[in-house]
Amino acid sequence: MSTQTPGFDRSAEDIGNIVEFGHVNIRVPDQRLATLFYVTGLGFTRDPYLVTGVDNMWINVGTTQFHLPTGTAQVLRGVTVIGVPDLDALALRLAGVRDALAGTRFGVTRGEGAIEVTCPWGNRLRCEASIGTRLGITAVELAAAPGTAAGIARFYREIFATPAVTAGGCAIVPAGLHTALVYRETALAQPEYDGAHIQIALADFSGPHARLRTRGLITEESSQHQYRCQDIVDLETGAVLCTIEHEVRSMRHPMYARPLVNRDPAISNNVFAPGREALVLGRDPTL
Predict the structure, then answer these.
(1) Residue pLDDT, tens place only, 75-105
(2) Is residue 281 assigned to a domain?
(3) Which of 14, 145, 195, 231 has the fewest CB atoms inside 10 Å of its own CB, making it the most exposed?
(4) How many separate domains does the chain show?
(5) Distance CA 228, CA 249 (A)
(6) Which alpha helices (DSSP H) does the chain contain, by range?
(7) Number of H helices, E strands in the chain
């Protein structure tokens, strides 16, 4: 029996210690406008089981989510990148909510293979054509100061034990199966950090916690299954390189890998096919 590797890059299957990207959390002042934007316009799905009141909303996007508690608007210092199965259908839905969102910061620009969208409060999303019918957050791109990418990548490698790299002025951090955190260097001035956060899950949960705690970087001991941190620092000097709160969960967290309901936004009361309401997420055809 041959023991030689038949041309496969086995390292391409490695995802590192961050085994799941869960959600982006941003406050919104108006749940009605958020529903028009995220559900009607973008075609995503409000979680039918959890957080069903009028002061917060969880939005399912494939296996990822947006969490949208009511409050003063938070604007992520960057772009959330989302893979969507049908850009033409998305463009029509967004055109359908344009009048209802008039007077807000809502905007849509279509380019080659992507639609750039701005939410009513200024958050930027880039919706890209996905492989097959895959749907989900594929990247969270965050602004970083010039000269910080290498230090940010090192922080994730040594603190979170995940294989972050640098390329083209960016720190690129694998975050689960189909998502990456991308810290993109820019000389443009950025607003003060306003508290928006991201959520990840780790295989080795206690190791990063110990390393963060030693450096005084734990900001919340949430529960047995969760803690929070927010400053990404230079490991030599302790200088803050970037700030974004991380809600860090273990694989024993009750909601780890929780199945999420996703509807097919093409199905409506006027265009209805029995049994077709759920979106069937397709496999990568290269597999």
Answers:
(1) 999 999 999 999 999 999 999 999 999 999 9
(2) no
(3) 14
(4) 1
(5) 9
(6) 31-34, 87-96, 149-159, 206-214
(7) 4, 16
Residue with tokens 């295989």: 203
Q: Of 151, 155, 152, nearest to 211 (Cα)? A: 155
* Per-residue pLDDT tens digits for 125-153: 999 998 766 899 999 999 999 999 999 99
Residue/partner pairs of 95-99 with CB below 8 Å, 24 or more apart: 96/40, 96/41, 97/36, 97/37, 97/40, 97/41
* Angle of helix 149-159 versus helix 206-214 axis, rounded to 10: 120
Residue 113 lies in a domain: yes
| Region 41-46 average pLDDT | 98
**CA 258 to CA 184: how far, in whole Å?**
30
35 lies in which domain range?
15-250
Q: What is the pLDDT of residue 282?
A: 61
| 3-class DSSP assignment, residue 201 | strand
Position with higher pLDDT, 67 vs 132: 67
Integer distance in angstroms from the first to the last C-alpha of the chain?
25
Average pLDDT score over residue span 228-244: 98
pTM over 0.85: yes
- Domain CATH number, residue 81: 3.10.180.10
pLDDT digits (tens, 9 = 90+) for 240-256: 999 999 999 999 999 99
For residues 216 and 73, give the distance between their C-alpha atoms in angstroms, rounded to a whole number: 29
